[in-house]
Write a structure and sequence with these properties.
Length: 426
């Protein structure tokens, strides 16, 4: 059993190194909020496609294509980095890809549908694929007793970053999507790229990267495919990790569906106007900061599995309340609870994954973790949309409860223990 494989877990990172790692969460949320959630989706639909009937389909197709590509390359690039190519190197490549493609969105104007879709696909591949390597740094800068806390710090800074980036571009969005203000809307895409670039830099300057036997002369694609095939063949040895990934796939599908459809539910069922919805999401993000930190600390003082179980029970309570809620002011309170649960479910899941994964397989298994997270973003929304279309949104909310409850039950089969290196690891 090689001692070097244990060194990341036993090494204590400095506070500045941990902050530099967490600051990457702060950096990339500008892309998530401005390009995937608020600014570019509306610009693409209203300006690029001129509100055509196919606008939603084109946007959804571009996003789905990018997620499909990331889902299938994540396990392979994770295995490659584990072999020795270096996590920081790959994180730098994909971050640069995202920043350059996001900056190029500034040049997308009315009618440039193909370019607008292509740049979105490229930028999101860079964003999502980079997270595979970013997440895999967690075990190297923390110990099993602090996984939950450090993971929570990262997500908390990410939620702060989303609030800061929205505050920065709010004056640019105030004029709306009219001809005289379009240059300001496009300028916000440059701000998103700059925000990501600047605040990601500390990680590359100050965070060490464990190197093994990597060489540019090696055929990394062949190595990645070979190690991926070996991992699948050795499934019985990693059955506990597989149990968690299946549970994660199901319950995070429910969480993702809630995030995707909460604004639609607020608009159509509770008849909230846009300004009220903005305030609602600000409350969700703010409480998510507290949730990621508080539940992260709770995970380190109890167990990650217990904390995650509590979080999923909280989500089930939120779904039950949403099914019967009539008052939009009660919906604000529900948003606070949703934020707490959101921060916890994301940070605690990442912490538990770090805890139960063997050191020599961490980046590769975080590739699977990313794969299951990305793939789950397809099933839940389809089910919700189908039920909502043929029945109503309140009944569709109950379908989310099915995912959460199933994931919770499967989680109970996961054994929470610190993973050790394989005896055959070299």
């Amino acid at each position: 059993m090689s001692s070097i494989l244990h060194s990341p877990s036993s090494r204590t990172a400095t506070r500045w190194q941990i902050f530099s790692w967490a600051l990457f969460d702060f950096a990339h949320t500008a892309f998530y909020v401005l390009i995937l959630t608020v600014g570019y989706p509306l610009y693409f639909k209203e300006i690029v496609t001129a509100n055509s009937g196919q606008g939603d389909f084109l946007w959804g197709s571009a996003f789905s294509i990018s997620m499909l590509i990331v889902a299938f390359i994540s396990p392979i690039i994770g295995a490659v980095a584990d072999y020795g190519a270096g996590k920081k190197r790959f994180l730098g490549i994909f971050t640069t890809l995202c920043v350059l493609a996001t900056s190029s969105l500034f040049f997308v104007e009315a009618g440039m549908i193909f370019l607008g879709m292509a740049l979105l696909i490229i930028s999101n591949i860079g964003f999502e694929a980079g997270l595979v390597f970013y997440d895999a740094f967690l075990p190297e800068i923390s110990t099993p007793r602090s996984y939950g806390r450090v993971s929570g710090y990262g997500f908390a800074l990410g939620y702060v970053g989303s609030l800061v980036s929205l505050a920065v571009v709010f004056p640019l969005y105030a004029g709306g999507f009219v001809a005289g203000n379009l240059i300001n809307i496009r300028f916000s895409f440059l701000i998103a790229a700059a925000f990501f670039f600047v605040f990601a830099l500390p990680l590359f300057f100050f965070l060490p990267d464990k190197q093994r036997t990597g060489s540019l002369k090696l055929n990394f694609i062949k190595i990645g495919v070979t190690r991926l095939r070996t991992t699948v063949q050795q499934y019985p040895q990693y059955r506990n990790v597989a149990r968690f990934l299946i549970s994660y796939f199901i319950y995070i599908d429910g969480v993702n569906t809630i995030i995707i459809f909460s604004s639609i539910f607020a608009r159509e069922t509770l008849h909230m106007d846009i300004s009220e919805i903005v305030v609602y999401f600000a409350m969700v993000q703010t409480s998510a900061i507290a949730g990621s930190i508080l539940f992260g600390i709770l995970a380190d003082h109890t167990t990650h599995k217990q904390t995650l179980s509590i979080t999923l029970l909280l989500w089930l309570g939120i779904v039950a309340i949403a099914f019967v809620i009539q008052d939009k002011w009660m919906f604000y309170g529900l948003g606070v609870l949703a934020g707490l649960a959101l921060g916890s479910s994301q940070s605690t899941s990442r912490g538990l994954m770090s805890l139960i994964t063997p050191p020599e397989k961490r980046t590769e298994f975080f590739g699977f973790y990313s794969f299951f997270g990305k793939a789950s973003a397809i099933l839940g929304p389809v089910v919700f949309g189908f039920v909502s279309s043929y029945l109503n949104q309140r009944v569709a909310i109950l379908s989310i409860g099915f995912f959460l409850l199933t994931g919770l039950l499967l989680l109970q089969r996961v054994e929470e223990r610190v993973a050790e290196s394989s005896p055959t690891a070299t």
